[in-house]
Design goal:
The protein is an alpha+beta fold. The chain is built from three helices and four strands, in the order E-H-E-E-H-H-E.
């Protein structure tokens, strides 16, 4: 499994428009094969920061996501949003243990 996680920082007042604009891409991504979780959420400690969390079966599923039409559309939409920086990482999971 793969986890993709990170954050994006928007200009002041830019996180709410970002979260609204990303919703169609999130909905489409959640329908993709191999996608278990896909979420952008506001950071409760920073009004200008948006958190990202994704859970994928494998690299093939993630590659399919990057090649999707809705991801291409999103990349164009994102250019018009007030995002000043992003830090996103991919984590390769070798084992999973239930904690609850």
């Amino acid at each position: 499994m793969l986890i993709v996680a990170g954050s994006l920082v928007a200009e002041p007042g830019g996180s709410e428009p970002f979260l609204k604009a990303v919703q169609p891409m999130v909905a489409a991504t959640l329908e993709e094969s191999g996608c278990h979780e896909y979420a952008f959420t506001p950071d409760p400690n920073d009004d200008n920061r948006v958190l990202l969390y994704e859970l994928w079966d494998d690299q093939t599923a993630l590659d399919g996501h990057f090649a999707s039409a809705h991801m291409a559309d999103w990349q164009e939409t994102r250019k018009g949003l007030a995002v000043t920086s992003a830090s996103i990482k991919k984590y390769i999971i070798s084992s999973i243990e239930d904690l609850g």
